[in-house]
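Folds abound. A case:
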Amino acid sequence: MLTWIMYDITDNKIRSNVVKQCKNFGLYRVQKSVFLGDINQNEFDEIALFFERLINSEIDAVYIFPMCKEDFGKVRLLGQAFDKELVTDEIKQLFF
């Protein structure tokens, strides 16, 4: 399933671990604190548990949004939707 992960994390070490984990699951960075990729249900649950144990729930936030391909096809990008230095051609292909 296509999955968006967005986060607002204050601690640099924790934030770096979140980035590393997203990349380990094959997610692509589309902005500095936003990842997108195709993962299965087990991976979805695993990454959610990992983040739940890692972050400080009193001050940090992680959003994990599954999205079906039909709804993803309805996404509209406006303006400078991606950080051109971070986004890969594989992510661009999902939108175009």
